[in-house]
Amino acid sequence: MESKVADLLKAFKSEMQALSCRSESDQIMWPFIQSTEVAIENHSPGAVLSWFRRQDSEKKVFWADRERNLEIAGVNFAHKIQGDSLDELNAAINLISRVTGTPGTPGYLGGICFNTEEPFDDLWIDYHRFTFVLPMFELRTCNSGFLWLRVNTFIRDRSELESAVGNVEREFSKLNFEPSDTPLAFSFSLASRTDEPIKEKWVTLIEAATHEIKSGGDLKKIVLARKTQFDLVQSGGRVSPIDLLVYFAESDTSGFTYYIQLSEKDAFFGKSPERLYKRTGDGIFCEALAGTTRIGRSAEEELLLKNELFLSDKDSMEHSFVVNFVQDVLSRLCTDFKSSQLRDIKRHFNVQHLLQQFSGTLRPELTDYDIITSFSPTPAVGGVPTVMALNRIDDAEAFRRGWYAGAFGMLSQEETEFCVSLRCALYKDHALHVFTGVGIVADSDPVCEWEEMENKMSHFIQYSLCN
């Protein structure tokens, strides 16, 4: 690998030199992304995450799609865009689309909060309503079976060319390319659990919600959430939330894996089962995922629970709300669309969900801003009708969701994919804040819904037991 790494830096400097020699009359659209990459080798499972863990940087980002066709580990940021309003989000997406317009240009990675109208608290202040980053250094895999190492720079104008080379050389020297067979060593365990709300308060909230739904008013469904805080017990060295990311990625390969670290003291990460949407050119793929039961302890029990989920009126109602929502959005965004004929089951960690998939052709004038603001938040994380459910959530929940139940993914002109930010946690100041939610309809039982949240959070508990 050492020779390939040297080749990459040499190629990058050569391309930057060629760029600086181009005449000022050349039609370079500033700002401009210069990207250089080399193929490293056939990769072993876990190679990208293993490299990611070894990097001593406080700025990191990771993304892996659900099929594991694409896996990206980013270290340091060549460019970061943050904002707090929908106008700023629109401007950011337009900029990203323009600077990633050349085929092969890397995409930006990042996320968007659950509700841009919701006030933020100190827990989320550094993340803003949205943050997108262009990694300075990427190690990634794709369908070719090779590892690709990439250097990216974001150059605002010609005057930054020389300083960009120096900055990359300086940060490149800090990267760790030494091979490592060191097994995952947990750096902390979870303790001192605090739930918000506590179980007694939760029962009261669910009873109030089901009473309103049964009263025959406009509210049909609401998704209520819980924030569980674990204080971290350090077992040596520096606390690293990347250990949790690796644990999730290795223990279950069925979902999207995402991670963003903006400083040494915080990180937001998760393992989501749910795609918000994927766009390739003018093609769009999305899904309705809702309704939940646990997995079985045996093959026989698994089949029984799966059949019960298919036949459950309560779960079918939850799922139908999302199906109707997706169909309504696609009818506005697409010239044509279709759905899978039958519902399926999506298994994820210790739970399974009802799933129906959709695909369509987008209207040519639409952007990713139009798509994401049409889909997020879905009834799977908000409720029906949306505005009323969001108002009820704001009244009922004593904490701010921030990026929980928002969207996280990769954004570029050529291709975009977002998952819904579920099964997630925020690490901040030596505490882990874990977020879980459930859909409430007329027949919801408070105790059963609490148990469902425990099942959804079980991978965090299992990590604690490993320690």
UniProtKB/TrEMBL annotation:
Keywords: Isomerase
E.C. number: 5.4.4.2
The Chorismate-utilising enzyme C-terminal domain, residue ranges: 199-456
Catalyzed reactions per annotation: chorismate = isochorismate
The keyword Transcription regulation belongs to this UniProt entry's keyword annotation: no
InterPro entries recorded: ADC_synthase, Chorismate_C, IsoChor_synthase
Xref: SUPFAM superfamilies: ADC synthase
A Pfam family of this chain: Chorismate_bind
Enzyme class: isomerase
Family matches, as NCBIfam families: isochor_syn (TIGR00543)
Family designation: Belongs to the isochorismate synthase family.
Protein name: isochorismate synthase
Protein source organism: Dyadobacter beijingensis
